[in-house]
Design goal:
Layout lengths: L1 H15 L22 H6 L19 H13 L1 H21 L5 E15 L4 E18 L4 H67 L5 H16 L1 H18 L8 H4 L17 H5 L3 H22 L4 E15 L2 E15 L7 H67 L5 H35 L5
Antiparallel strand pairs: 1-2, 2-3, 3-4
Length: 465
């Protein structure tokens, strides 16, 4: 009767038990109402023919090669594969944490055979025995330590999932940026070779005039110098193109050299034709993977406080056991059945300050996670502001560069005509060629930079589905 009363009492305890430790409350984002450079987002959508924002933002460049490269990167990149494996690991950690509250059943079987011989009368006694037992224990999570452990494990899973999203975003942005840089460098190399060809034509004119005594050797040497200086700029661009091809191979899980045939042919720098999300800071912060990771880490630390607090309270456990034993031999046979049902209350009285230290550590880690979350929010807003201001500056810079290229081209054509007529020196022609080549290179670099900055903007916005 006493055992039954104890069981009923212990069975009622979970109904009145409580989960110790604080419940997680999301901190306020306190985000600014708009970006300082928010008008850039509207400006970027001016005159766009597309009417929807693609879920896979890189498709807005309308470049099949880029689309294939990003798809290959997401499928084969080893950083993404590692993060995906971590997600599976943390899913299993939830089951592991929850198992502490589950019923445990153990079984055992034992057997023995003995022979006793009497040397005086040459007699023997044989004895055999066998036993089997079944035991069960049921932990009672009265104060919620297991529940807090599960909360912590779920928050860790959420952080791992956001880390995976962040890696996918980072890899896709890296592939897009590297590909756009490659196409831009191809354009710069194309312009450089055109400039070399142009300078070679000028050199041919100078050599012809020098041959007939119409130009000094100084003009000839200057023409040669101009051509060779331009040629010297070709190897660094070719090296950069090779490095970009190798980098893209690595990002997509392949060895260097895998894209020599695919990416060696020159192609134009693709422009971004799709709409860009015109969002406010709050929307951006609620979707950026790194901010969500920081919040998940904070949630995990808050749950860990509950785990640490639960150690101050007693642990309850119900147990039951059944044992059957049988013996037999020359003297006869016997059977025994034993059963037991009980409960255990485990309470640590003195631990030398271990539990308090663990609780203090958990609280300090929560403060640290909260500070890291707030810092992540600040950095996220700064990233977007930087991306927007960079795009604005790049777009505004292209306007005078385009005018500079047009004016430099007219100036060079006029200088070439005047030189042939002997009205100006060759130095004027070389200077006009140098200015034109420089202006074309600067414009090509800025157009490349603008395209790369588009991918940086999407990364800063945390735009990944």
């Amino acid at each position: 009767m006493k055992i039954r009363h104890l069981i009923c009492t212990l069975a009622f305890i979970p109904l009145i038990g409580c989960t110790v430790g604080p419940d997680y409350t999301p901190p306020e984002l306190d985000a600014p109402p708009k970006f300082l450079s928010g008008e850039v987002l509207s400006m970027l959508n001016t005159d766009k023919t597309e009417t929807a924002i693609p879920n896979e933002w890189w498709r807005g460049f309308d470049d099949p090669v880029l689309n294939d490269l990003v798809a290959a990167g997401i499928a084969n990149n080893y950083d993404i594969a590692a993060d995906a494996a971590r997600v599976r690991q943390f899913r299993s950690n939830i089951d592991l944490a929850a198992s502490a509250d589950n019923l445990n059943i153990d079984a055992n079987i034992d057997g023995d055979l003995s022979d006793r011989r009497n040397l005086n009368n040459n007699s023997s006694t044989n004895t055999s025995s066998a036993s089997a037992g079944l035991g069960a224990t049921l932990p009672l999570d009265i104060f919620g330590q297991t529940r807090r452990d599960v909360e912590s494990a779920r928050a860790a899973l959420q952080a791992a999932e956001e880390d995976l999203r962040n890696t996918v975003l980072s890899v896709s942005a890296d592939i897009a940026a590297e590909y756009l840089q490659l196409r831009g460098n191809q354009r710069q190399l194309e312009l450089l070779r055109e400039s070399v060809t142009l300078q070679e034509k000028t050199l041919s004119i100078v050599e012809s005039r020098f041959k007939y005594g119409l130009a000094p050797d100084l003009d000839k040497q200057r023409a040669i110098t101009s051509v060779e200086n331009l040629r010297a700029d070709i190897p660094p661009l070719e090296q950069s193109l090779l490095q970009s091809r190798n980098r893209l191979a690595t990002l997509t899980g392949l060895y260097s050299g895998a894209y020599e045939d695919l990416l060696k042919p020159t192609a134009n720098i693709p422009g971004y034709n799709a709409l860009i999300p015109d969002i406010i800071p709050f929307e951006m912060l609620s979707r950026r993977p790194d901010v969500r990771t920081a919040e998940a880490n904070l949630k995990q630390r808050v749950a860990d406080i509950g785990v640490a607090e639960a150690e101050f309270y007693p642990a309850f456990e119900l147990s039951a056991a059944v044992a059957i034993s049988a013996t037999g031999g020359s003297a006869g046979a016997a059977q025994t059945i034993l059963s037991a049902l009980g409960a255990v209350i485990d309470q640590t009285l003195i631990d030398g300050g271990r539990r308090q230290a663990n609780l203090d550590i958990a609280r300090a880690e929560t403060d640290e996670a909260l500070a890291q979350y707030k810092q992540a929010v600040l950095l996220a807003v700064e990233d977007v502001e930087t991306a927007l201001s960079n795009l604005k500056a790049s777009r505004e810079r292209q306007i005078p560069l385009e005018k500079s290229v047009a004016a430099s081209n007219r100036s060079f054509n006029q200088a070439e005509i005047l030189y042939r007529e002997g009205l100006i020196s060759f130095l004027d022609v070389v200077d006009a060629q140098r200015v034109l080549a420089s202006a074309e290179q600067q414009l090509a670099r800025e157009r490349t930079n603008y395209a790369v900055l588009i991918s940086a903007l999407f990364e800063s916005l945390g735009f990944i589905e």
